[in-house]
Specification:
- It is a single chain.
- Helix content is about 25%, strand content about 40%.
- It has about 475 residues and is an alpha+beta fold.
- About 35% of the residues are buried.
- The strands form 7 sheets. The protein has a 6-stranded antiparallel beta barrel.
- The N and C termini lie far apart (about 115 Å).
- It has 3 domains: about 140 residues, Copper amine oxidase-like, N-terminal domain (Copper Amine Oxidase, Chain A, domain 1); about 120 residues, Immunoglobulin-like (Sandwich), CATH 2.60.40; about 180 residues, Zn-dependent exopeptidases (Aminopeptidase), CATH 3.40.630.40.
């Protein structure tokens, strides 16, 4: 009897095993071509297909996610843009750049290492990004788990259905409310109430005192009261979106009366529950910084058939012109006579630029450019050039460099010497500013942001005005 029971149990186990095998999930497979740079062709193989969900919803793709060398590979835009990140393909270097806030990931085709904020990072099991083709569609495939987790998402693998579930918890961005703006008329002081000490920045340009309050939102109750002030003419406010990498910024702008200046007769100070702004009647003995009578040539580098440095479809000439036009408008509002070497996308030779400035007997010449590097794709920051040590050109370059760094908060690469044609062949103090690296993702994102360009322009214009003040003081 015992033998019979053992035989029946053994038979049951065999039947159960066969049933489990019969119902085990068999993944679909299809042929995908992976580009072989050595052979300059696509090598087609059959790969198991993976289903993909994001926050529980199926993710449609024109090229399937597949298993390659034990890793799930997915089209880069599918995973990156699905998680709110930006993607840029750099064809010259065969790299794909992923940006999300302060995070920048660069993957190089067929390389087992990635750059994460400029730091070399080994990819899991050395499986690199690849160029792939499927049904005539070409895409860049990247390791899904590596990219998703770098972007803050959770990844779960379901082997029974060959499905990868991606879910990114909502980000909690802390902020405080800017609750009120009150005036103490007797002290001619304004109190910006935030309920706690505030993180803020102050700028002054063209009679505007600008206070940016970070990690803050305007309360629904916020308003500007009727006021009388010896130094403030108008107050404006907004939820500001001009910073490329900072969210939740409240901007409060005090339009100051003629002659009122910061910090000469207006102060901005932190308080226990916000910010206080106090001032008095303009001091007529304070230099007004009147720039009327000066002629400044603003030169937007490159143009026309000469696009300058490029990164994918992004062109240096477009950045240079956009910033130059903003500088022109700001300086004209301050009374400076402005001459432009170009105002649209046209070509002007280097000799033509210098001759234009010399023929018009300009007081200063400022050329606006965008940097690039073919070797270091994490190079960042702003630098300003002058021809040689000594003389007013050094003062001009330092005024511009210091002001732009103060306005933008960019990495300070300093003021330097260079034997550039437009610096050498102009008869007046001349400077050339490199506003950032178009070949570096972190800089490029900012350079194509309208608000950041405004900050660049304000920095350049303020530096020029400071220099003009020095020449007449």
């Amino acid at each position: 009897m015992k033998r019979l029971l053992l035989r029946l149990a053994f038979a049951f186990c065999i039947i159960l095993a066969f049933n489990i095998m019969a119902f085990a999930y068999t993944p679909a497979a299809d042929k995908v071509g992976v580009f072989d740079a050595g052979a300059n062709t696509y090598d087609y193989k059959s790969y198991n297909i993976v289903s993909l969900t994001n926050k529980g919803a199926d993710v449609p793709t024109d090229m399937p996610a597949v298993i390659m060398d034990g890793r799930t590979m997915v089209p880069v835009r599918v995973i990156s843009e699905g998680l709110g990140a930006g993607v840029l393909w750099l064809s010259q270097t065969r790299q794909v750049s992923i940006s999300y806030g302060d995070l920048f990931i660069v993957l190089t085709i067929d390389s087992a290492e990635a750059l994460v904020n400029g730091k070399s990072t080994a990819l899991p099991e050395g499986v690199p990004a690849v160029l792939a083709k499927y049904n005539g569609v070409q895409r860049t495939l990247v390791p899904l788990r590596f990219v998703a987790e770098q972007l803050g998402a959770d990844v779960e693998w379901d082997p029974e259905t060959y499905t990868v579930h991606v879910d990114k918890p909502p980000e909690e961005v802390p902020f405080y409310e800017v609750e009120a703006l009150n005036q103490d008329a007797e002290a001619d002081m304004f109190a910006i109430s935030t309920g706690e000490p505030a993180d803020y920045d102050v700028k002054f340009f063209d009679q505007r005192l600008v206070i940016d309050i970070f990690n803050a939102k305007l309360s629904d109750r916020f308003s500007v009261p009727n006021f009388e002030s010896a130094w403030a003419e108008e107050v404006r406010y907004s939820q500001y979106t001009g910073y490329a990498d900072i969210k939740n910024v409240v901007r409060i702008v005090f339009q100051m009366k003629s002659g009122a200046r910061y910090p000469e007769n207006v102060s901005v100070d932190a308080s226990a529950d916000g910010i206080s702004v106090a001032g008095g009647a303009p001091d007529e003995t304070v230099p007004g910084g009147d720039a009327a009578g000066f002629t400044v040539v603003i030169d937007a580098g490159h143009g026309g058939d000469d696009p300058g440095a490029m990164s994918g479809n992004y062109r240096e000439t477009d950045i240079n012109l956009a910033v130059a036009l903003r500088v022109r408008d700001l300086l004209q509002n301050a009374g400076v006579k402005i001459l432009m070497t170009r105002t649209d996308d046209t070509y002007v030779s280097l000799a033509g630029r210098a001759e234009f400035a010399n023929a018009n007997e300009a007081d200063i010449f400022v050329s606006i450019h965008t940097n690039a590097s073919s070797e270091n794709f994490s190079a960042s920051g702003i630098e300003t050039y002058y021809l040689a040590p000594g003389g007013w050109a050094v003062v001009l370059a330092n005024c511009i460099q210091d002001s732009v760094i103060d306005q933008t908060g960019a990495f300070d690469r300093g003021a330097k010497t260079a034997n550039f044609f437009v610096l050498r062949e102009t008869d007046m103090p001349a400077a050339l500013i490199e506003t950032g690296f178009i070949t570096t993702e972190s800089d490029r994102v900012k350079l194509f942001d309208e608000g950041y360009r405004d900050s660049l322009a304000e920095g350049i214009a303020t530096g020029i005005l400071e220099f003009l003040d020095k020449t007449v003081s």
